[in-house]
């Protein structure tokens, strides 16, 4: 069985070089990157991946809030959690139906 090889034309010297479809692949002739845009995209994706993940958006209940305000905030928080649970169920159900 024959092994398939990928090749890409170098944007700098216009020669065809072996290409492993990696952002760091270089031209065999001039040594420049075969896909400079992929290098930038990989750097941007790494930067995005290293950013902190935001916390779950629940309403903040402070101890300094009055009793009535805390009661209503607990009701709203319960609604938020119920909504998240329903959405999670729908996502699960759709994926089960899709197979």
Short structural summary:
The chain crosses the membrane at residues 81-98. The protein has 99 residues and is mainly α. The protein has helices at 36-49, 67-98; strands at residues 7-9, 16-18.
> What's the Cα radius of gyration?
26 Å
Strand content: 5-15%
Instruction: Give the number of domains.
Output: 2
**Which sequence of strands runs across the widest sheet?**
1-2
Helix run count: 2
Global mean pLDDT: 88
Helical content (DSSP H or I, runs of 4+): 40-55%
Alpha-carbon distance between the termini?
34 Å
Task: Please write the string of helix (H) and strand (E) elements.
Answer: EEHH
Walkthrough of the structure:
Keywords: Membrane, Transmembrane, Transmembrane helix. The chain crosses the membrane at residues 81-98. There is one protein chain. The protein has 99 residues and is mainly alpha-helical. It folds into two domains: 7-49, no CATH class; 54-99. The protein has helices spanning 36-49, 67-98, and strands at residues 7-9, 16-18. The chain has a two-stranded antiparallel sheet. A hairpin with a 6-residue loop joins strand 1 and strand 2 (16-18). It is elongated, with a radius of gyration of 26 Å. The chain starts with 6 loop residues before the first strand and ends with a helix. 3% of the residues are buried. The mean pLDDT is 88.
């Amino acid at each position: 069985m024959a092994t398939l090889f990928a090749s890409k034309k170098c944007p700098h010297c216009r020669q065809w070089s072996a290409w492993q479809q990696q952002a760091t692949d270089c031209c065999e002739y001039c040594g420049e990157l075969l896909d400079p845009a992929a290098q930038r995209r990989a750097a941007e994706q790494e930067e995005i991946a290293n950013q902190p993940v935001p916390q779950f958006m629940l309403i903040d209940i402070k101890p300094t809030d009055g009793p009535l305000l805390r009661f209503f905030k607990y009701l709203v928080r319960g609604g938020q959690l119920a909504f998240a649970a329903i959405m999670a169920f729908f996502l699960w159900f759709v994926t089960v139906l899709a197979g």
